[in-house]
Amino acid sequence: MRTVSVARVGAVVAGMTIAVAALAQSPAPRPTIIAGDEWTFRQTGTEAGRNVERRWSLRIAERLPDDLITVERGNGAIEFYDDSWNRRDPQVPDYRPLDLRFPLEVGEAWDWSFDRGQSTQRGAQKVVARESIAVPAGNFECYRLEGHFSSNSRFRSETRTMTRWYCPALNYWGKIRQEIVTWDAFSPGSRSVLDSELVRFSRRD
After folding, report:
1. Most buried pick, 69, 90, 132, 156, via CB within 10 A?
2. How many domains does the chain have?
3. 38 vs 16, 32, 44, 127, 176, CA distance in Å?
4. Residues 51-102: pLDDT tens digits?
5. CB 181 within 8 A of CB 170
6. Is there a domain that residue 21 lies in?
7. What is the pTM of this model?
8. What is the CATH number of the domain that holds 61?
C-alpha cells in the first residue's frame, strides 16, 4: 500500500490554497464592450433636500474608431467614452478624465486634472478592496473604488465623493454611492446623497 506523508499532503493543500487565492485576486482586465449591452439601475436617496426614487439606464449604441463608444442614456442623451469607461468629448480631445484604469488591482491609485480658461476639474481614484456585493440583479465579485471629483469655475463649484463597485462579470459598476455638494453664485448651495444599485443587465457576448 502506498503511503503519503502528512507533511506532503499539507504542502499540496497549501499550494492549492495559494493558487486559488492568487486567482481570486488576479487583476480585472479591460472590459469587452459590445453594442447592445445595457444596464438599468434603481436610485434612491436625497437630492437637494428632497427624497428621490427613480431608475436610470444606459445602452451601448455604437463602437467607433479609436476605441471610442457611444452610450445612450435612458433619457435619450448621447455620451462618448473610451473602451475603459472614461468620458470623452470629440470636440475637446485634451479632455481626458480617468475614472477607471485597467487592469484593476487592489492598491492601485491615480489622479487626473483638466484646466480650461477659468474652469478646473480634478479627480482621484483608489482601488481599496475586492469584495462581494448583493444587488437586485444578483450577487457579484467586485472591486471597490473610492474617489472624489471637483469642478470649479467663477460662478459654480461641485464636489463628489464616490464609492463605486466595478464588477468584471458586468463590465460595469454594480453599485454606486455618491455625495454631491454644489455651490452656485446665483442660488443656495445643495447637498445630495444618492445610491444606485443594478436591477437588470443584458450583455451581447
Report:
1. 69
2. 1
3. 37, 13, 20, 24, 16
4. 999 999 999 999 998 889 999 999 999 999 999 999 999 899 999 999 999 9
5. no
6. no
7. 0.85
8. 2.40.360
